[in-house]
Design a protein that fits this description.
The chain has 335 residues and is an alpha+beta fold. The chain has two domains: 169 residues, Thiolase/Chalcone synthase (Peroxisomal Thiolase, Chain A, domain 1); 123 residues, Thiolase/Chalcone synthase (Peroxisomal Thiolase, Chain A, domain 1, 3-Layer(aba) Sandwich), CATH 3.40.47.10. Helices cover 30% and strands 27% of the residues. The two termini are 27 Å apart.
Length: 335
Amino acid sequence: MEGIKVNQIGVSFKGIGSYVPDQVLTNQKISQKVDTSDEWIKSRTGISERRISRLEDNVTEMGYEAALNAIEMANWDIKTIDLIVLATSTPNDLFGSAPSIQAKLGAYNAVAFDLTAACSGFLFALITATQFLKGGSFKRAIVIGADQLSSFVDWNDRRSCILFGDGAGALAVEATNEFDNFIGFDMRTDGERGSFLNLPSTNNKDSIIDNIDFLSGGFSPIQMNGQEVYKFAVREVPIILEKLFRNTNYSSDEVDWLVLHQANQRILDSVGDRLKIPREKILSNLEKYGNTSAATIPLMMDEAIRNNRIKHNDIIATSGFGAGLSWGAALIKWG
């Protein structure tokens, strides 16, 4: 796709959509598999249930449904979409699932690619897409966060299997030369702490012929040091948001909503308390969906916009954080 090469100064948000599988796994059902209980899980995480993909619910299918909902809200002609960025760590094609979504949508004029940053993925993808739009290369973009973590969970590990679910969310973003609703952003990575949360390859040794060995492909289940991830999130997320407020000349009092990656209710509450943002402004739906990785932020925003909690021109502070370790923040105005 040849860039349109016009001068843009900002972006606006035109539509949002989401999709979750219809298969519900409650805490009570998990307690039949591992030694835990509904009360134990809820008191430590805030999660009551999560969605688990059926065979037909891969990342391509979930991302397509979420994107289609966002496009319908935006009232776009699909042929006018220039860019599709899919944030996922669990593509159903390791070479990339965004092109499959592009084909399924019929968005043949759009360039499409995957971006991998785990639970920070959607925010990183949104930042990436907005920079293309502001630079004048593209006019309309679909940013998708979709993950199928149920395929990579050890369902016998009660420390991690209680946390994760599947889902997708998408945002329709348009370049404009009139205003900018993407107010500011910041991004960070600390690879030295990456071992706290990862999904490593298995790298099983095999042999092609004599003296020619190779490592066969495959992945281990999700590995996580929950205590360290918690400490990382409650320390670093308030710091990056406070810096973003300073750099954009905003204060936490001017924020209408705080939309964080939905990992743990205690993290959401702790970050809000640090920033002196009232609990009623902290959006949360992890009770129903658990941690859906790159999908959590757009999934939460879609729910809040469609039930009229988030309204036109509301100021939203958002932060994604997780494996890498990576984290970022953005300040946006809806609309």
